[in-house]
Write a structure and sequence with these properties.
Keywords: NADP, Oxidoreductase
Strand content: 15-25%
Mean pLDDT: 96
Low-confidence stretches: none
CATH superfamily: NADP-dependent oxidoreductase domain
InterPro entries: AKR (IPR020471), Aldo/ket_reductase_CS (IPR018170), NAD(P)_OxRdtase_dom_sf (IPR036812), NADP_OxRdtase_dom (IPR023210)
Radius of gyration: 18 Å
Family: Belongs to the aldo/keto reductase family.
Shape: globular
Distance between the termini: 43 Å
Number of strands: 10
CATH topology: TIM Barrel
Oligomer: single chain
Largest sheet: 8 strands, parallel
Strand order of the largest sheet: 3-4-5-6-7-8-9-10
Structural class: alpha/beta
Number of helices: 10
Helix content: 25-40%
Protein name: Aldo/keto reductase
CATH architecture: Alpha-Beta Barrel
Pfam family, one: Aldo_ket_red
Order of helices and strands: EEEHEHEHEHEHEHEHHEHH
Number of domains: 1
């Protein structure tokens, strides 16, 4: 493993550089809670903030960006179009609402949140238009499995640059990781810590003892050494700081194999293959 630092980046398939780690803001309340979390993250060294229209906190994220001393062009901002807004014109309108909420002139990464059959290909055409116009520097998807990505490949002019999936040691998504690698699509982890559901695993505890790190730091380091970008969520400044302090140690090959052994295809969120989006 080549030594990595907080300033290192992944290069997406269009040449855009994206930070290894970002702050997720799912369930962070709009207003002071999300604003303070984003400001704490930027102060701690984060340069990637991941939100979504569905989260209802884009305005607070935008307020934090404007209040920060870090220049806009040094930040990487992601948001996502929600299921109700999939379609060509619908997605274009949703994008404008998100941009108004964020108060931004351009977006670094725009994602389709879920693969709604019969609608996501039209939404992808809208993302291509936004990309062509320079409104978005990179475009991608979230919760897309192989068949959904193949649906994009069959009609796209611009290939997805990133796929954001539930990813953690209990759900290592090995087949999807290999498929994304084969198509030069960056994999990104949502729920990388499984909401703390991995912290008491004996393997994780052994590595906590070995490295003098927290369970979260062990797991997030595993993400990065697997080449997966990661967006742990927190609104607590101390945990936000803890989650980014993962660049001063390295997991050995044997350590990585031990964590890999925890994979049990255990999903915390909905499965994109059988989730009813009418729920």
């Amino acid at each position: 493993m080549v030594t990595i630092s907080v300033n290192d980046t992944y290069t997406l398939n269009n040449g855009v550089k994206m930070p290894f780690i970002g702050l997720g803001v799912y369930k962070a309340e709009n207003g002071s809670q999300v604003k303070d979390a984003v400001l704490a993250a930027i102060e701690a060294g984060y340069r990637h903030i991941d939100t979504a229209s569905f989260y209802g906190n884009e305005k607070g994220v935008g307020e934090a960006i404007r209040a920060s001393d870090v220049p806009r062009d040094s930040l990487f901002i992601t948001t996502k179009v929600w299921n109700d807004d999939l379609g060509y014109e619908e997605t274009l309108r949703a994008f404008e609402v998100s941009m108004d909420n964020l108060g931004l002139d351009y977006l670094d990464l725009y994602l389709i949140h879920w693969p709604i059959e019969g609608r996501y290909t039209e939404a992808w055409k809208a993302l291509e238009k936004l990309y062509d116009e320079g409104r978005v520097k990179a475009i991608g998807v979230s919760n897309f499995h192989r068949q959904h990505l193949e649906g994009i490949f069959a009609m796209c002019r611009v290939k997805p640059m990133l796929n954001q999936l539930e990813y953690h040691p209990h759900l290592a998504q090995k087949e999807m990781h290999a498929f994304c690698k084969a198509h030069d699509i960056q994999l990104e982890a949502w729920a990388p810590l499984k909401r703390g559901g991995l912290f008491e695993e004996p393997v994780i505890q052994q590595l906590v003892e070995k490295h003098g790190k927290t369970p979260a730091q062990i797991i997030l380091r595993w993400d990065l050494q697997n080449g997966v970008s990661t967006i742990p969520k927190s609104v607590t400044p101390s945990r936000i700081q803890e989650n980014i302090d993962i660049f001063d140690f390295e997991l050995s090959g044997a350590d990585m194999e031990k964590i890999d052994s925890l994979d049990s295809n255990q999903r915390m969120g909905k499965n994109p293959d059988n989730f009813s989006f009418d729920e």
